[in-house]
Design goal:
single chain, alpha+beta, 3-stranded antiparallel beta sheet, elongated, binds manganese (II) ion
Amino acid sequence: MIYTLPPLPYAPDALEPQMSKETIEYHYGKHLQTYVDNLNRLIAGTPYEEVSLETLILTSTGPLFNNAAQVWNHTFFFNSLTPDPEPMPAELTDLIIRDFGSVPAFKEKFKKAATDIFGSGWAWLAQDGKGRLHIIQESNAGNPLRAGFKPLLTIDVWEHAYYIDYRNRRAAFVDNCWEMINWKKVAARLHEPSPAARVADLAEETVVVGTATKEEFAEAVAEAIEEDEEADMQRYVCIICGWVYDPVEGDPDSGIAPGTPFKDIPDDWTCPACGVGKEHFEPER
Ligand code: MN
């Protein structure tokens, strides 16, 4: 499967002033796009091309898990927001009162969980197998699907989610999120099958994906990641003057940090020796 940027269910400026058009342009338009692109790159040529995003999340680790989960989490997050919020449906209100005491108590607890996450991560409202609601903190790309929960709501607390509009004030961002939560959608998720139900039975000895066993699967992915890392360290030579770009060194005089793969150099970069553009470079043999 080739992943694409999921549709944004409202106009980029529709969530202002709680979330600016500029934040959407960066967060949805650039950050999420990068996770989508990375995911496509990592699964290309591996058995992971054939499975659902949920299977990827439940069976992978490392860069593959990180990018797959970030695609899932962001899609879920942007779909949890609306410019036209409606009151919380009674069914959800009742569950929240049952499990947290009151709606204000839930919001306070959720906000504390969201602001207390050290570094980047996600705060979740999720339901366990017995129907009880929980507030769950996850770091980095974490997703409560991995622990068997059904996600109902999430708020992204990576700095990129709020820094343009709120600078370092994460708590203010969470407070403002309450003004744009699509509670109808959150309540509807109570009746959707858990996304994990779409995943092959992981308890079995081998998860059959096509004809690959789980081990072959992991091996193929590890290989693809390794090839990818090797490709990133490829040196490129200027075919006009012979100057060589080495990703290990970068080109610090032009602001290209050491460790930057050639493909990640901005398009307006030029050869420091003769001044021609990137298009005049080819991989060194
Ligand atoms: Mn984000």
